[in-house]
Design a protein that fits this description.
With 400 residues, the protein is an alpha/beta fold. The chain is built from 15 helices and 15 strands.
Length: 400
Amino acid sequence: MTDWIAEEHRYLFQNYGRQPVVIERGQGTRVWDIEGNEYLDFVGGVAVNVLGHSHPAVVAAIADQAGRVIHTSNLFYTTPMIELARLLVERSGLDRAFFCNSGTEAVEAAIKLARRWGHDTRGGAFEIITTTESFHGRTMGSLSATGNQRYREPFEPLVPGFRIVPWNDLDAVRQATTDRTVAVMVEPIQGEGGVNMPAPGYLAGLRAWCDERGLLLIFDEVQTGIGRTGTFFAFEHDGVRPDVMALAKGLAGGVPIGAILARDEVAAHFVKGDHGSTFGGNPLAAAAALATVREVLAPGFLERAREASARLVERLRSLEDRYGLVTEVRGRGMLLAIGLARDCSAELVDEARRRGLLVNNVRPNAIRLMPPLTVSHDEIDRACDILEAAIRAIEGAFSK
Ligand code: PMP
């Protein structure tokens, strides 16, 4: 039998810390490896698989679209993209959509749009304020916006024009604002930074400051969008609407796609030839996205996801009450993290996997849970039982 992990080590760049599982297929919250072992998938493709694996509506939409036309380029009109734009515009209260292929591309588009708008209307202002511990992507513009030094330093010099201020500190944003500032960009909940919640009033304070100073407020909802936090967009929790929003991950239920949404007055500054991509919003990705978005917006879907989240949080809180290793449960909806008393998240991830649960270590002292929004109460209970056994194993190892 082929040793796929050895083959990967031989033929691929070694830039990922992959878990030693070769996944062959998935169904709902479950995946199976090539040896037939079954796992509960609480990584969910890093917040991508909002409907779980191989959801019938997504599979049917992809198959149907693939049989019609897969790709035509943006030299022509295609209907799935236009329908998708309408759905996203109607839900967001923003006016227009642009499609690309990933989260980092969506952020790049948002950065370019903000600069274009500053060029045209703010005397060439171009600086964008972002926050510490933020994650906006790995291409040069998005990386330059990313607050985590670990990702940035080896790739300097980065793109100029970003000011990084402490997360959850409104005064720092005010102080960093100059005549050259054009926008403030934040994740409504920081995902890769460790699932860090915004302080009460933080997002509203940013909105008020941007309004006062004539700045764009950009929300990077790449991780938080499409129901992940219990509402379709995370900004709905706070009632704070951005001027520009970046989306990706969950949007097409697993097919690569990215998008930005913007207010009319801002979107109008991208004129013909300013920005684009060959694949962006292509019929296959857009059809998968349409099917995904329709499911998530169907009556009762988000209510059920919120109920499942409440169940999961309750179970995790009971671990917090009973095990010294668990210091905190944070996050919202199906974007949750467990804080640990020690830097043992990698060991906990391994222990959980050996028992049939896939999770992700988002920090040395925190694991992140991002199951499909469709996860059942029974799957939540089984996952939490496994997590508890894994925590016991780790606590046992440390007390020896
Ligand atoms: N922004 C946020 C908030 C993200 O979480 C991510 C991915 N983790 C990105 C941007 C980049 O997305 P992608 O990996 O699709 O480029």
